[in-house]
Amino acid sequence: MYQLRNKKYDIVIQNGTLIDTIGGFEKKADIAIVSGKIAAIGTISVDDAKMCVNAEGCYVSAGLIDYHCHVFHGGDWASCSAEAYALPNGVTTLVDAGSAGCGGFPLFWNGVAARSLVNIKAYIFVGTGGQVGLGCVEDENPAHINRDGIVELCQKYPKEIVGIKIKIDKDHLAQYGIEPLREAIRLGEQTALRVSAHATDPVVPVDEFIDLFRPGDIYCHMYHETGEGILDENGRVRDSVRRARERGVLFDAAHGKTNNFSLSCAKKAIDQGFAPDIISSDYTKISMSARYPFTMMLSEYLNLGMSFPEVLRCCTENPAKLIADRNTPFLAPGEAADLAVLKITERPVTFWDHYGNLVHGDRLIENKMTVCGGEILFDQLEDKYQKFA
Asked: Hey, which bits of the chain come out as E strands?
Protein backbone atom coordinates (compact mmCIF):
# COMPACT_ATOMS: atom_id res chain seq x y z
CA MET A 1 0.00 0.00 0.00
CA TYR A 2 2.92 2.36 0.56
CA GLN A 3 3.53 2.42 -3.19
CA LEU A 4 0.26 4.30 -3.61
CA ARG A 5 1.95 7.41 -2.24
CA ASN A 6 3.91 7.66 -5.45
CA LYS A 7 0.89 7.62 -7.71
CA LYS A 8 0.11 10.85 -9.52
CA TYR A 9 -3.69 10.72 -9.17
CA ASP A 10 -6.08 9.58 -6.44
CA ILE A 11 -8.84 8.48 -8.84
CA VAL A 12 -9.08 8.22 -12.59
CA ILE A 13 -12.48 7.79 -14.22
CA GLN A 14 -11.93 6.31 -17.66
CA ASN A 15 -13.94 5.78 -20.84
CA GLY A 16 -16.92 7.93 -19.88
CA THR A 17 -18.53 10.68 -21.93
CA LEU A 18 -17.87 13.99 -20.22
CA ILE A 19 -20.82 16.38 -20.49
CA ASP A 20 -20.81 20.00 -19.32
CA THR A 21 -23.53 22.40 -20.44
CA ILE A 22 -21.66 25.51 -19.29
CA GLY A 23 -18.56 24.39 -21.16
CA GLY A 24 -20.71 23.36 -24.10
CA PHE A 25 -19.04 20.04 -24.63
CA GLU A 26 -19.87 16.35 -24.74
CA LYS A 27 -16.78 14.25 -25.37
CA LYS A 28 -15.18 10.91 -24.61
CA ALA A 29 -12.31 11.48 -22.18
CA ASP A 30 -10.76 10.37 -18.92
CA ILE A 31 -10.83 12.56 -15.82
CA ALA A 32 -8.31 12.50 -12.97
CA ILE A 33 -8.79 13.62 -9.37
CA VAL A 34 -6.24 14.71 -6.77
CA SER A 35 -6.95 16.10 -3.29
CA GLY A 36 -10.60 16.80 -4.01
CA LYS A 37 -9.96 18.63 -7.28
CA ILE A 38 -10.04 17.73 -10.95
CA ALA A 39 -6.38 17.42 -11.92
CA ALA A 40 -6.48 16.44 -15.59
CA ILE A 41 -8.79 15.63 -18.50
CA GLY A 42 -7.78 13.65 -21.57
CA THR A 43 -6.19 10.27 -22.12
CA ILE A 44 -4.78 9.23 -18.75
CA SER A 45 -2.74 6.13 -17.97
CA VAL A 46 -4.08 3.74 -15.36
CA ASP A 47 -0.52 3.37 -14.11
CA ASP A 48 -0.72 6.91 -12.73
CA ALA A 49 -3.78 6.23 -10.56
CA LYS A 50 -4.31 4.85 -7.07
CA MET A 51 -7.79 3.82 -8.19
CA CYS A 52 -9.37 3.47 -11.64
CA VAL A 53 -13.05 3.53 -12.48
CA ASN A 54 -14.41 2.29 -15.80
CA ALA A 55 -17.36 4.50 -16.83
CA GLU A 56 -17.85 2.95 -20.26
CA GLY A 57 -21.37 3.65 -21.54
CA CYS A 58 -21.96 6.40 -18.96
CA TYR A 59 -21.98 10.16 -18.84
CA VAL A 60 -19.67 11.91 -16.40
CA SER A 61 -21.28 15.15 -15.30
CA ALA A 62 -20.84 17.73 -12.64
CA GLY A 63 -22.57 16.57 -9.49
CA LEU A 64 -26.26 17.37 -9.70
CA ILE A 65 -27.66 20.39 -7.88
CA ASP A 66 -31.07 19.95 -6.31
CA TYR A 67 -32.33 23.51 -5.84
CA HIS A 68 -35.39 22.62 -3.73
CA CYS A 69 -35.52 19.90 -1.09
CA HIS A 70 -35.95 19.60 2.68
CA VAL A 71 -33.12 18.21 4.80
CA PHE A 72 -33.58 19.62 8.32
CA HIS A 73 -33.64 15.98 9.42
CA GLY A 74 -34.84 15.68 13.00
CA GLY A 75 -35.80 19.34 13.12
CA ASP A 76 -39.22 19.05 11.50
CA TRP A 77 -41.74 16.43 10.50
CA ALA A 78 -41.07 16.35 6.77
CA SER A 79 -37.32 16.62 6.20
CA CYS A 80 -35.20 13.66 5.15
CA SER A 81 -31.50 12.94 5.59
CA ALA A 82 -29.41 14.83 3.04
CA GLU A 83 -26.90 12.01 2.57
CA ALA A 84 -29.47 9.19 2.41
CA TYR A 85 -31.34 10.97 -0.35
CA ALA A 86 -28.72 12.97 -2.25
CA LEU A 87 -25.76 10.65 -2.74
CA PRO A 88 -27.66 7.76 -4.43
CA ASN A 89 -29.13 10.36 -6.81
CA GLY A 90 -25.85 11.95 -7.93
CA VAL A 91 -26.62 15.13 -5.98
CA THR A 92 -23.53 16.80 -4.50
CA THR A 93 -25.05 20.24 -3.83
CA LEU A 94 -28.55 20.95 -2.59
CA VAL A 95 -30.63 23.88 -1.42
CA ASP A 96 -32.92 23.41 1.55
CA ALA A 97 -36.10 25.26 0.55
CA GLY A 98 -36.87 27.09 3.77
CA SER A 99 -37.32 24.24 6.24
CA ALA A 100 -36.12 26.61 8.96
CA GLY A 101 -37.30 30.09 9.85
CA CYS A 102 -35.19 32.57 11.76
CA GLY A 103 -36.10 30.85 15.03
CA GLY A 104 -34.42 27.56 14.09
CA PHE A 105 -31.97 28.47 11.34
CA PRO A 106 -28.81 28.48 13.51
CA LEU A 107 -29.67 24.99 14.76
CA PHE A 108 -30.35 23.78 11.22
CA TRP A 109 -27.12 25.24 9.93
CA ASN A 110 -24.78 24.24 12.74
CA GLY A 111 -26.45 20.93 13.58
CA VAL A 112 -27.21 19.62 10.08
CA ALA A 113 -25.94 21.61 7.12
CA ALA A 114 -22.41 22.41 8.27
CA ARG A 115 -21.82 18.75 9.19
CA SER A 116 -23.10 17.28 5.94
CA LEU A 117 -21.04 15.32 3.45
CA VAL A 118 -22.82 17.18 0.64
CA ASN A 119 -22.73 20.90 -0.06
CA ILE A 120 -25.79 22.64 1.38
CA LYS A 121 -27.24 26.10 0.85
CA ALA A 122 -30.57 27.29 2.18
CA TYR A 123 -33.60 29.51 1.87
CA ILE A 124 -34.98 30.97 5.08
CA PHE A 125 -38.73 30.78 5.62
CA VAL A 126 -40.66 33.96 6.37
CA GLY A 127 -42.40 32.34 9.34
CA THR A 128 -40.23 32.23 12.44
CA GLY A 129 -41.05 28.58 13.18
CA GLY A 130 -40.17 27.37 9.67
CA GLN A 131 -42.01 24.74 7.64
CA VAL A 132 -42.78 22.00 10.09
CA GLY A 133 -44.80 19.66 7.87
CA LEU A 134 -48.19 18.68 6.52
CA GLY A 135 -51.17 19.57 8.68
CA CYS A 136 -49.13 21.83 10.94
CA VAL A 137 -49.41 25.58 11.44
CA GLU A 138 -46.82 27.58 9.50
CA ASP A 139 -47.32 31.17 10.59
CA GLU A 140 -47.16 33.63 7.69
CA ASN A 141 -49.17 36.38 9.35
CA PRO A 142 -47.38 39.51 8.10
CA ALA A 143 -47.68 41.03 11.56
CA HIS A 144 -45.67 38.11 12.98
CA ILE A 145 -42.83 38.10 10.45
CA ASN A 146 -39.58 38.77 12.31
CA ARG A 147 -38.05 41.13 9.79
CA ASP A 148 -35.08 42.10 11.95
CA GLY A 149 -34.32 38.48 12.81
CA ILE A 150 -34.39 37.39 9.16
CA VAL A 151 -32.20 40.30 8.04
CA GLU A 152 -29.71 39.64 10.84
CA LEU A 153 -29.36 35.98 9.86
CA CYS A 154 -28.99 36.81 6.17
CA GLN A 155 -26.12 39.11 7.14
CA LYS A 156 -24.57 36.51 9.44
CA TYR A 157 -24.78 33.73 6.83
CA PRO A 158 -24.21 35.60 3.54
CA LYS A 159 -22.83 32.60 1.64
CA GLU A 160 -25.18 30.06 3.14
CA ILE A 161 -28.61 31.73 2.80
CA VAL A 162 -29.51 32.16 -0.86
CA GLY A 163 -33.13 33.29 -0.69
CA ILE A 164 -36.41 33.95 1.11
CA LYS A 165 -39.12 31.25 0.99
CA ILE A 166 -42.85 31.81 1.24
CA LYS A 167 -46.01 29.80 0.62
CA ILE A 168 -48.87 31.62 -1.10
CA ASP A 169 -51.45 28.84 -1.07
CA LYS A 170 -54.95 29.12 0.36
CA ASP A 171 -54.17 26.88 3.33
CA HIS A 172 -51.60 29.36 4.61
CA LEU A 173 -52.74 32.77 3.37
CA ALA A 174 -56.55 32.58 3.37
CA GLN A 175 -56.70 35.16 6.17
CA TYR A 176 -54.05 37.48 4.78
CA GLY A 177 -54.42 37.57 1.01
CA ILE A 178 -51.28 38.38 -0.89
CA GLU A 179 -49.73 40.76 1.66
CA PRO A 180 -47.25 38.13 2.99
CA LEU A 181 -45.84 37.82 -0.55
CA ARG A 182 -45.41 41.58 -0.69
CA GLU A 183 -43.63 41.42 2.66
CA ALA A 184 -41.37 38.61 1.44
CA ILE A 185 -40.43 40.68 -1.60
CA ARG A 186 -39.67 43.66 0.65
CA LEU A 187 -37.36 41.37 2.60
CA GLY A 188 -35.83 40.26 -0.67
CA GLU A 189 -35.12 43.87 -1.54
CA GLN A 190 -33.64 44.57 1.89
CA THR A 191 -31.39 41.51 1.86
CA ALA A 192 -30.62 41.50 -1.90
CA LEU A 193 -31.95 37.96 -2.10
CA ARG A 194 -34.41 36.30 -4.44
CA VAL A 195 -37.82 35.05 -3.28
CA SER A 196 -39.16 31.55 -4.01
CA ALA A 197 -42.95 31.31 -3.74
CA HIS A 198 -44.74 27.98 -3.32
CA ALA A 199 -47.62 28.66 -5.72
CA THR A 200 -49.78 25.53 -5.54
CA ASP A 201 -53.48 26.47 -5.07
CA PRO A 202 -52.68 30.19 -4.82
CA VAL A 203 -54.71 32.43 -2.55
CA VAL A 204 -55.49 34.81 -5.45
CA PRO A 205 -55.58 34.28 -9.24
CA VAL A 206 -52.22 33.98 -10.97
CA ASP A 207 -52.69 37.26 -12.84
CA GLU A 208 -53.05 39.05 -9.50
CA PHE A 209 -49.72 37.98 -8.05
CA ILE A 210 -47.29 37.07 -10.81
CA ASP A 211 -46.51 40.68 -11.68
CA LEU A 212 -45.22 41.16 -8.12
CA PHE A 213 -42.27 38.85 -8.85
CA ARG A 214 -39.00 40.57 -9.65
CA PRO A 215 -36.51 39.28 -12.23
CA GLY A 216 -34.77 36.36 -10.55
CA ASP A 217 -37.65 35.52 -8.22
CA ILE A 218 -39.00 31.99 -8.51
CA TYR A 219 -42.47 30.64 -9.23
CA CYS A 220 -42.22 27.32 -7.42
CA HIS A 221 -44.23 24.16 -8.27
CA MET A 222 -44.90 25.38 -11.80
CA TYR A 223 -46.63 22.15 -12.89
CA HIS A 224 -49.22 21.68 -10.15
CA GLU A 225 -52.88 20.98 -10.90
CA THR A 226 -54.58 22.33 -7.76
CA GLY A 227 -56.29 25.68 -8.11
CA GLU A 228 -55.04 28.17 -10.68
CA GLY A 229 -51.70 27.45 -12.30
CA ILE A 230 -49.62 28.39 -15.29
CA LEU A 231 -52.24 26.92 -17.67
CA ASP A 232 -55.54 28.65 -18.37
CA GLU A 233 -58.93 26.94 -18.59
CA ASN A 234 -58.11 25.88 -22.17
CA GLY A 235 -54.83 24.26 -21.22
CA ARG A 236 -52.73 27.05 -22.69
CA VAL A 237 -49.81 28.70 -20.93
CA ARG A 238 -51.10 32.02 -19.60
CA ASP A 239 -49.93 35.20 -21.30
CA SER A 240 -49.04 36.66 -17.89
CA VAL A 241 -46.82 33.66 -17.21
CA ARG A 242 -44.99 34.03 -20.52
CA ARG A 243 -44.52 37.75 -19.88
CA ALA A 244 -43.12 36.97 -16.44
CA ARG A 245 -40.51 34.66 -17.96
CA GLU A 246 -39.63 37.28 -20.55
CA ARG A 247 -38.78 39.77 -17.80
CA GLY A 248 -36.66 37.27 -15.89
CA VAL A 249 -38.95 35.43 -13.48
CA LEU A 250 -37.76 31.83 -13.08
CA PHE A 251 -39.89 28.69 -12.98
CA ASP A 252 -39.02 25.71 -10.79
CA ALA A 253 -40.66 22.32 -11.28
CA ALA A 254 -40.08 21.38 -7.58
CA HIS A 255 -41.54 17.93 -8.12
CA GLY A 256 -42.32 16.25 -4.82
CA LYS A 257 -44.89 13.45 -4.59
CA THR A 258 -48.01 15.34 -3.50
CA ASN A 259 -50.24 17.78 -5.37
CA ASN A 260 -47.32 20.05 -6.26
CA PHE A 261 -46.65 18.23 -9.55
CA SER A 262 -48.82 16.99 -12.40
CA LEU A 263 -47.51 15.00 -15.36
CA SER A 264 -50.47 16.21 -17.40
CA CYS A 265 -49.69 19.87 -16.74
CA ALA A 266 -45.98 19.31 -17.40
CA LYS A 267 -46.68 17.62 -20.75
CA LYS A 268 -49.07 20.35 -21.91
CA ALA A 269 -46.66 23.11 -20.96
CA ILE A 270 -43.56 21.46 -22.42
CA ASP A 271 -45.45 20.72 -25.65
CA GLN A 272 -46.03 24.50 -25.82
CA GLY A 273 -42.35 25.22 -25.30
CA PHE A 274 -42.66 26.10 -21.62
CA ALA A 275 -40.00 23.91 -20.03
CA PRO A 276 -38.63 24.51 -16.53
CA ASP A 277 -35.69 26.72 -15.69
CA ILE A 278 -34.99 24.50 -12.69
CA ILE A 279 -35.78 20.83 -12.14
CA SER A 280 -35.69 20.17 -8.41
CA SER A 281 -37.03 17.35 -6.29
CA ASP A 282 -38.86 18.94 -3.33
CA TYR A 283 -37.62 15.78 -1.66
CA THR A 284 -39.02 14.96 1.78
CA LYS A 285 -39.90 11.84 3.73
CA ILE A 286 -42.97 11.58 1.48
CA SER A 287 -40.81 11.25 -1.64
CA MET A 288 -38.57 8.79 0.18
CA SER A 289 -41.57 6.69 1.20
CA ALA A 290 -42.90 6.81 -2.36
CA ARG A 291 -39.61 5.32 -3.58
CA TYR A 292 -39.49 7.90 -6.36
CA PRO A 293 -35.85 9.03 -6.66
CA PHE A 294 -34.66 12.32 -8.14
CA THR A 295 -33.18 10.49 -11.13
CA MET A 296 -36.66 9.13 -11.91
CA MET A 297 -38.07 12.67 -11.70
CA LEU A 298 -35.38 13.83 -14.15
CA SER A 299 -36.21 10.90 -16.43
CA GLU A 300 -39.79 12.15 -16.74
CA TYR A 301 -38.57 15.20 -18.64
CA LEU A 302 -36.42 13.07 -20.91
CA ASN A 303 -39.60 11.19 -21.84
CA LEU A 304 -41.70 14.38 -22.13
CA GLY A 305 -39.56 15.73 -24.95
CA MET A 306 -36.58 17.46 -23.36
CA SER A 307 -33.07 16.44 -24.44
CA PHE A 308 -30.58 15.08 -21.93
CA PRO A 309 -28.44 18.27 -22.06
CA GLU A 310 -31.57 20.35 -21.48
CA VAL A 311 -32.50 18.25 -18.46
CA LEU A 312 -28.94 18.39 -17.14
CA ARG A 313 -28.80 22.17 -17.54
CA CYS A 314 -31.81 22.50 -15.21
CA CYS A 315 -30.06 20.63 -12.40
CA THR A 316 -26.45 21.81 -12.86
CA GLU A 317 -25.84 25.00 -14.82
CA ASN A 318 -29.00 26.96 -14.03
CA PRO A 319 -29.02 26.41 -10.26
CA ALA A 320 -25.24 27.00 -10.11
CA LYS A 321 -25.80 30.43 -11.62
CA LEU A 322 -28.41 31.18 -8.96
CA ILE A 323 -26.25 29.97 -6.08
CA ALA A 324 -22.90 31.42 -7.10
CA ASP A 325 -23.36 33.32 -10.37
CA ARG A 326 -21.30 30.63 -12.03
CA ASN A 327 -20.46 30.87 -15.74
CA THR A 328 -17.30 28.75 -16.00
CA PRO A 329 -17.18 25.02 -16.84
CA PHE A 330 -17.58 22.44 -14.08
CA LEU A 331 -15.34 19.86 -15.70
CA ALA A 332 -11.97 21.57 -15.85
CA PRO A 333 -8.63 21.21 -14.05
CA GLY A 334 -8.68 22.96 -10.70
CA GLU A 335 -12.45 22.66 -10.22
CA ALA A 336 -14.00 20.75 -7.33
CA ALA A 337 -14.28 17.02 -7.96
CA ASP A 338 -18.05 16.87 -7.43
CA LEU A 339 -19.23 14.42 -10.06
CA ALA A 340 -22.12 12.20 -11.04
CA VAL A 341 -21.66 9.18 -13.30
CA LEU A 342 -25.00 8.76 -15.04
CA LYS A 343 -26.32 6.11 -17.41
CA ILE A 344 -29.37 6.35 -19.66
CA THR A 345 -30.94 2.91 -19.79
CA GLU A 346 -33.43 2.08 -22.53
CA ARG A 347 -36.26 0.04 -21.08
CA PRO A 348 -40.00 0.39 -20.45
CA VAL A 349 -40.77 2.62 -17.48
CA THR A 350 -44.00 4.10 -16.12
CA PHE A 351 -44.10 7.47 -14.36
CA TRP A 352 -46.97 8.44 -12.06
CA ASP A 353 -48.17 11.41 -10.05
CA HIS A 354 -50.46 12.31 -7.15
CA TYR A 355 -53.34 13.06 -9.55
CA GLY A 356 -53.41 9.57 -11.09
CA ASN A 357 -51.73 10.58 -14.36
CA LEU A 358 -49.41 8.07 -16.01
CA VAL A 359 -46.70 8.52 -18.62
CA HIS A 360 -45.16 5.47 -20.25
CA GLY A 361 -41.58 5.98 -21.37
CA ASP A 362 -38.59 4.06 -22.60
CA ARG A 363 -35.56 5.84 -21.08
CA LEU A 364 -34.43 5.99 -17.48
CA ILE A 365 -31.58 8.07 -16.04
CA GLU A 366 -29.68 6.06 -13.45
CA ASN A 367 -26.92 7.30 -11.17
CA LYS A 368 -24.02 4.88 -11.02
CA MET A 369 -21.51 6.81 -8.95
CA THR A 370 -21.32 9.98 -6.88
CA VAL A 371 -18.01 11.69 -6.17
CA CYS A 372 -18.17 14.55 -3.67
CA GLY A 373 -15.08 16.49 -2.69
CA GLY A 374 -12.96 13.93 -4.50
CA GLU A 375 -14.37 10.98 -2.51
CA ILE A 376 -16.49 8.19 -3.93
CA LEU A 377 -19.55 8.29 -1.67
CA PHE A 378 -21.90 6.15 -3.77
CA ASP A 379 -20.96 3.40 -6.20
CA GLN A 380 -23.10 1.08 -8.30
CA LEU A 381 -20.83 0.81 -11.31
CA GLU A 382 -20.44 -2.68 -12.65
CA ASP A 383 -16.65 -2.61 -13.20
CA LYS A 384 -15.64 -2.98 -9.53
CA TYR A 385 -11.94 -3.18 -9.94
CA GLN A 386 -9.15 -1.07 -8.49
CA LYS A 387 -5.73 -0.56 -9.91
CA PHE A 388 -3.07 -1.00 -7.24
CA ALA A 389 0.67 -1.27 -7.58
From this structure: 9-14, 17-20, 25-28, 30-34, 37-42, 49-54, 59-62, 64-69, 91-97, 119-125, 161-167, 194-198, 218-220, 250-252, 339-352, 358-372, 375-379
